[in-house]
Design brief:
By secondary structure, the chain is mainly α. The chain has a domain of 42 residues. Helix content is 50%, strand content 8%. It has 1 helix and 2 strands, in the order αββ. Strands 1-2 form a two-stranded antiparallel sheet. A hairpin with a 2-residue loop joins strand 1 and strand 2.
């Protein structure tokens, strides 16, 4: 039972081929953007290592500490 490839078949084939290519390109761009965004977010969260200067060690600034009994006052001692 042989069938011939009609012009209607080729029109549908072409339409579906281009639709599939378009979906593939859009999804690839979306996933690339998400991967890049995730990579950038990860590199920002890496804490800075202490820098050694001779015998002194300089550490990254610590967050402001509060006294448990006094609301709103920052601890200025280090």
């Amino acid at each position: 039972m042989g069938t011939s490839l009609t012009p209607e078949f080729w029109e549908r084939f072409t339409l579906l081929l281009f639709a599939a290519m378009g979906v593939t390109f859009v999804l690839t761009a979306l996933f690339d953007a998400l991967a890049l965004r995730r990579t950038i977010r990860r590199t920002r969260k890496i804490p800075a290592l202490p820098v050694q200067n001779g015998n002194a060690v300089v550490r990254a600034a610590s967050p402001v500490r509060r006294h448990p009994g006094r609301a709103g006052t920052a601890d200025t001692r280090r």
